[in-house]
Amino acid sequence: MVEIHLNLDPESRRTLTESLAEYALGFETGRSSETAPGDLDPDLQDLWRRELEQQLREDAEQLLAYFCAEDLGKGVIRLDADEADAVMRACSAVRLHIRELVLEGVSDASLESGDFDVEKLSAKEQRGLQCYIFLAALQSHLVEAIDPDSAESGNEF
Amino acid sequence: MAVTETTPERKSKTRSRESPIWHVIVLNDPVNLMSYVVMVFRRVFGFSAERARRHMLEVHRQGRSRLWSGEREKAEAYAHTLQKWQLTAILESDG
Fold first, then answer.
1. DSSP 8-state code for residue A155
2. Rounded distance, CA B65 to CA B56, Å?
3. Of A88, A149, A156, Cβ closest to residue B34
4. Could you read off the pLDDT of B58-85 as tens digits, one per residue?
5. Does A141 lie at the interface with B, CB-CB under 8 angstroms?
6. Domain coordinates of chain A in residue numbers?
7. Which domains, ranges and CATH numbers included, belong to chain B?
8. Which of A111, A139, A149 sits opposite B33 (nearest CB)?
9. Which of A15, A76, A97, B21 has its CA 20 to 30 A from that of A129?
10. Which residues of B lie closer than 8 Å to A, measured between beta carbons?
């Protein structure tokens, strides 16, 4: 069981839950559609893609169930091992989605180093970045709680 | 009895000569955290923390790392599992 303590002011909570809802529900086609081996039978490619999309949907639902709630930030969130796995996967998926959808104007190097002027980003980009950073912190916390040996590798990208 | 015992071995040798070896390759991405990638490698392949970290750093520095090699079916299963964890995994063969 992993415990998560969040302390958010009402404005941050509102912005975060709106962003999560927007980006975690925004998967129309996952990256998975392009990742099945090209020489697979078309039916198997379709199965490959559908299974990934199903996993993605279930993971996103788990993330939203816990972190898109009205009482977010008021009390402790407790996740069992399966729920924590789903939330970790969803954190990656939503971050990849935000990266491609909202932060495409920020270079990989700048995003990794944090060396860019946030004030120059549009409101939408700033909102996406806030969500992006929150999900990184959440995922990092979960990795540290579940597998401390892996957590020693750090939180760079 | 002797035939039953030797046939699988002969089949296996034939297959190893004719079938290419498939490699599971993970490509770098600018999003996933190092600690998360190490954890996924440990989960999926049962690597030690040290070995998983070595592969993660290879991905980070060289853009790709070969995580596993062997028969096609198992390579597909590994690649699919890695993709479920949102890593960019592809298959390559020697053939």
1. S
2. 8
3. A156
4. 999 999 999 999 999 999 999 999 999 9
5. no
6. 2-28+63-150
7. 22-93 (3.30.1390.10)
8. A139
9. A76
10. 29-39, 42, 49, 52-53, 56, 76, 79-80, 83-86, 88-91
